[in-house]
Amino acid sequence: FTRWPFMTTHTWAENPRGLWKLQISMAPGKNNAMDTGSFFEWTLILHGTKDAPYDKQVVDGNKHTKLYKVKRVHEAMRKA
């Protein structure tokens, strides 16, 4: 991949402060042979908001939405 953006929402509710480390691993390919590759550069871009996105929006009780799960994690972090 050349300049391919890998994106995720799985880190929502993650505190962006601190040391970030990029770990790369390759699974064995056909016949357990290891493929090789070259890694030249990477960039980490964090997007966020000062205020939690659910503070000004109604988050319904649908426990399967990402925003609902993030709200629960933030509430638990505040209580700890």
UniProtKB/TrEMBL annotation:
GO terms for molecular function: serine-type endopeptidase activity. One of its GO terms (cellular component) is membrane. GO terms for biological process: peptide hormone processing. Residues 1-52 form the P/Homo B domain. Gene3D superfamilies: Galactose-binding domain-like. Pfam families: P_proprotein. The keyword Membrane does not apply. Keywords: Hydrolase, Protease, Serine protease. InterPro entries: Galactose-bd-like_sf (IPR008979), P_dom (IPR002884). This is P/Homo B domain-containing protein. It comes from Magallana gigas (Pacific oyster).
